[in-house]
């Protein structure tokens, strides 16, 4: 259950990061509200996952899902650059996430 909560917490991190970008510095109401709601839900699920997962594992995977997802959303929907070096960097983050999951105790 902790891993499922952590996965959805990471997905919600992507949502709030994208919504924050769309809020234009919290100057647009709907994206600002989505940002705040997704943040609260993401933190809530992260705290639930941390009840049984080690801090370092949970936090790294949460931020990694958010980082990779934000990179993908930025490239797919915001026209952000996708260069070979950025893809290598994303691959290294993904490798770190897989290694952290494989070595996790819970």
From TrEMBL:
It comes from Sphingomonas bisphenolicum. It is found in: Cell membrane. Belongs to the drug/metabolite transporter (DMT) superfamily. Small multidrug resistance (SMR) (TC 2.A.7.1) family. Gdx/SugE subfamily. It comes from the Bacteria. The chain crosses the membrane at residues 33-50, 57-79, 85-104. Keywords: Cell membrane, Membrane, Transmembrane, Transmembrane helix, Transport. NCBIfam families: PRK11431.1. It is a multi-pass membrane protein. This is Guanidinium exporter. The keyword Cell membrane applies. The keyword Glycoprotein does not apply. InterPro entries: EmrE-like (IPR037185), Small_drug/metabolite_transptr (IPR000390), Small_multidrug_res (IPR045324).
